[in-house]
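We modelled the chain as a single entity of 251 amino acids. Its sequence is:
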Amino acid sequence: MKRWIFTVLLLAAFVGVWQIVASLPGVDRLILASPLETARALGDDRSLLLDNAWVTLTEVLLGLAVAVVLGAAAAIGMHLVRPLRDAAYPLLVASQAIPVLVFAPLLVLAFDYGIGPKIAIVAIICFFPVTVNLLDGLRATDPELLKLMRSLGASRAQTLRKVELPACLPNLFSGLRIAATVSVIGAVFGEWAGAEDGLGRLVLLGSQQLETPRTYAGVVILTAMAVALFALVTLAERVAVPWNRQGGRTA
């Protein structure tokens, strides 16, 4: 309860400072909208914002799903096949040096302005944290448990299914929390590269048309979306991996 109280107080302080700065005589309202103007835009443009938010949320959820499936397959493959890990891991790390703004327009040009390029961009951004965290979790399995499974005559598939995959779930959810946060950024970049709908496009058009309150309202919804996804992943972890939370409390 104390943590939530401090969070609310900190947020209220931030909004208060924002309102004070936006109300200063020398601040141009076309550059900085106040919290009151942003709240008014949230109400006046509610239908427009929600319609575009649904488009962005769809891109984010589908991109996350693709990243989880492909990331899990890649991590398990690299874990089981040592030569594959030695060859692919450096390439996986090097791929993070490529800015998303470089390949986002290329995907849009190749696959048009539909939802496909946005899903691909979100999946590409989320693939790395999911894969790396899951791989680290698989490699960090307790050696004593692996010895026990070998002594019981378990096959490699049985050891993976009954010991390694359950043990790596905390790492997987750590990667998912990171992916859930950056997925919204990926969707916005994809919509900036070229889109017909979405909050990213709406924010871009709002800034170009000097609709500053609407722009800030879109940013507020994008922030709330990222926080909500992070909270949902945390809640899913508590349900799926209850022993991790209990172990942390004991420690």
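As a brief sanity check on the tokenised model: DSSP finds twelve helices and no strands in the chain. The mean pLDDT is 84.
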